[in-house]
Amino acid sequence: MPLGLAAALSLLSLPFAARAEDGHQLWLRYPSAAVGRAGSAAISAPDTHNRPSLALAIAELQRGLPARARQGRFHLTTPADGSWPARYDGLGTDGFALSSRKLAGRTETRIAAKTDLGLLYGVFHYLRLAHSGADLGRLDLVSSPRIALRVLDHWDNLDGTVERGYAGASIWDWWRLPDWRDPIYTEYARANASVGINGAVLNNVNAKADSLTAPYIAKAAALADVFRPWGIKVYLSARWSAPIELGGLKTADPLDPAVAAWWRAKADEIYRAIPDFGGFLVKANSEGQPGPADYHRTHAQGANMLAVALRPHGGVVMWRAFVYAHDNPEDRAKQAYNDFKPLDGQFADNVLVQVKNGAIDFQPREPFHPLFGAMPRTNLMMEFQITKEYLGQSTHLTYLGPLFSEALHADTLSKGAGSTVARVVDGSLDGHRLTGIAGVANIGANRDWSGSIFNQADWYAFGRLAWDPDLSPKAIAREWAAQTFSPAPKVVDAVTAIMMPSREAAVDYMTPLGLAHQMSVYGHYGPGPWVNTLARPEWNPVYYNRADAQGIGFDRTASGSNAIAQYAPAIAARLARPEATDEKDLLWFHHLPWTYRMRDGATLWDDLVRHYDRGVAGVESMQAQWQALKPAMDAERFEKTRVFLTIQRRDAQLWRDASIAYWQSLNHLPLPAGSAQPAHDLGWYKALSFPYAPGNP
């Protein structure tokens, strides 16, 4: 029996009896599919022999059909399997078309795609519609992903820990692989395929060379075998110094012929074990990692050497632009641009430079990274963080769909209005065919996968926006809520109303008005705007807030670091003036007096305090809204979310009070009318520590 068909049949054999609502089913609960299972739908499809993805598509359709759709007929077709309307010719390899019509009292539904994987994606989208309450008798849509490589980056270590992992240990059981292929690997692949994710980097960017040894290549090959029918390729983070550590060479210089030969041989070895291996992700010359700069070579020279090794096999290099040096006297936000902009046009065509959404480090809010729009001759891919290192980790309810969308919709103006970051990433702005987007995964061994029910929405939103960056975060939230809880409009409306303002509330109680990196040194969890004792200046929150008796904020205009010059001239001209700068980013670009007048007429100080107050009030509102949903929720997920919101409310108050206490110690200003004094003095807040916060390296 073909592997894919066996997997499909195993899915159909899963019990549909009542099960605990612990979140493990994610958005694929199919709660109404248990009704009337004897009435299987009529599905017309080609023979699944040696077509595992097609077998999975059929099994998923049978598994997930709600009772209201089981009397219909379904036709799954590719160009080789029957009639093919000309209007579908533009579908890409992953695209699909859905159409339906009423015929003799029954709904006839066609799912068409050029490939079996496209059919699988089409089935998942049909089921998404079915379990979100859509009218299944009036379908007429065509959908193809705008970005080719849609990848999860796992910061998983070989010892089972996860850097910045807040949902338990790694799901990869390296010790038992390749022999034991845990069923969770199939569940993982299925969940990713359901939202169109097609790649997984298995190991931490702070890589160990062991990942490239024969035993670990065999382990990765076992995972690749599980993932393949679901359309997911595996990638590995490559340690730059591996030729020294594994090959016995005395150098890792990319221009040394022996080094290049070692990497070619290693690539050949990997592809013998994993014929569809995706390629390497590389973190080099950042945070102490080795790289080509150790040999006075450029990032392009390093990336291109690896690209040559992978090219015969169709592999790619994803080279991270997250770099900052030990000697950083000016502005950390400028470093990636300074290092990479001069290299535009020097990278091989199978290299993607992977750029974070902002220039610092996954902050609650950052302006878009200035490299987007600045390297038109280079394949640039986006890197988001799904795991919430700086946004309350797994405990705070902070839906990231608006953050992702905000970055993707930012206009670089590099080729005039409409030159959005999304158009850079999808290749349409500069004519690139190799395109990619990565999300640092929030997945762990917790039963709910991500540490909380609502963190699942961030994984879901990343996949949906990777497929189509123009999707509305609100529409995505509604889809997720309908599939995760209930399609009942009152439930969907209420859950969406909680989700949509949640990230903004966190920005308000943590880093309002453009402040950034104000987290404590203990796991980036609690507040620490006073911290100034760390060895490197850019590790200290005071480096970013620049607060003193006169004012607050980082001057990135011409009178300061002049980081604004890295943006298009029209953007730089706007950012040069505080009154023209979006107040959400005000203190990111300007150091201003506490008495500076905001657009609403209030002083900067009064507005800052009111933002903190608004953040706390936002969490209180979320608590009340969630409590009102209790009658419509299962007890398990309701209670876990209720407790987490209680923690978030306490943390929001801590952030608000600790931050205000520190600012008042500098400016000695009274609080605006109606704002309460912090509960404790500054010394009490400074004494707090979080030494065992999860997710530390």
Automatic annotation (TrEMBL):
One of its GO terms (molecular function) is hydrolase activity. It holds the Pfam family Glyco_hydro_67C. Residues 89-126 form the Alpha glucuronidase N-terminal domain. It comes from the Bacteria. Residues 1-20 form the signal peptide. Gene3D superfamilies: Alpha-glucuronidase, C-terminal domain, Chitobiase/beta-hexosaminidase domain 2-like, Glycosidases. Homodimer. Residues 451-674 form the Glycosyl hydrolase family 67 C-terminal domain. This is Xylan alpha-1,2-glucuronidase. It comes from Novosphingobium humi. It is an enzyme of class 3 (hydrolase). Belongs to the glycosyl hydrolase 67 family. Its EC number is 3.2.1.131. It catalyses: Hydrolysis of (1->2)-alpha-D-(4-O-methyl)glucuronosyl links in the main chain of hardwood xylans. Residues 133-449 form the Glycosyl hydrolase family 67 catalytic domain. Keywords: Carbohydrate metabolism, Glycosidase, Hydrolase, Plasmid, Polysaccharide degradation, Signal, Xylan degradation.
